[in-house]
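User: Can you help me understand a structure? I only have the sequence.
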Amino acid sequence: MNPLTSHVASRHIATALLVVGLGVAAGAQAQWRVVDNAANTKLQDMNGRIGTTSANGNGNGTVNGNLRELYQQQVFESFNGNNDDSKAAPEPEEKLQHAQPTQSGVNMNADNRCKQATSGVAQQQYQLCREIVNTELAKYNYSLKMYEVTTQRQRYLDELKRQRGNIRSHEVGKLQDNTNRILLLMSQMEIDRQQQQTYMDAYVARIGYLQEASKTLSQQALEGKGNTSGPGGLGGLIGGAVGIGTLKLALDAAQSRRRH
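Assistant: Let's start by predicting it. Here is the structure, written out as tokens:
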């Protein structure tokens, strides 16, 4: 083949290959643009659903907006301890002291309220009287103790409210921690309330039982029933001075208990 002819043919072949290559590249670029545009459309749709509203904007139906609204609903914007809707109940006007129900210095404990005796019905009345007085004092002291516990719980709740009001919009972990603490405190306060009510009911029931037992002893003594044998018994003594004295002590103890 003529060298000139061969050179021309080579140039034609190279040109053809270049044209084919450019055509393939153009097709690939066109295909990539099509795929990229579809992906961009989907991403834009997803971004629209997720949303990027401002911190104080509404949800507008977006995921981020709805989450932000839900978060803001759980956060106290501010806490004012003097607000009537959130402040604790007022303190009692009369301050109470443990083991001192009276403020006048009058000591009315079991020794003063119960007439002491050493035998017979009177001795039993004396023991019952002491149990009644001590149970009444225990009921008073426990009520006062539970009041102090409730005051401590209220102070802690106020502190949690203040902390919640200072939580920022992005501090989701702190918000959840604060919520958990409030729920735990509320549960503990409910347990405290149930425990106090249970003890109060038990104290009232015990006092009622002891009072009825004391009345029964007094009635039995008047009717000449009950324990009439052994030392201090009523049998053989009612007709004598010792028997009359024993009965009088029993009646005095019952009268003293009713009076106080």
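Now, to help you interpret it: Helices lie at 3-50, 63-74, 110-113, 120-165, 172-223, 241-259. The chain has six helices and no strands. Let me know which part you'd like to focus on.
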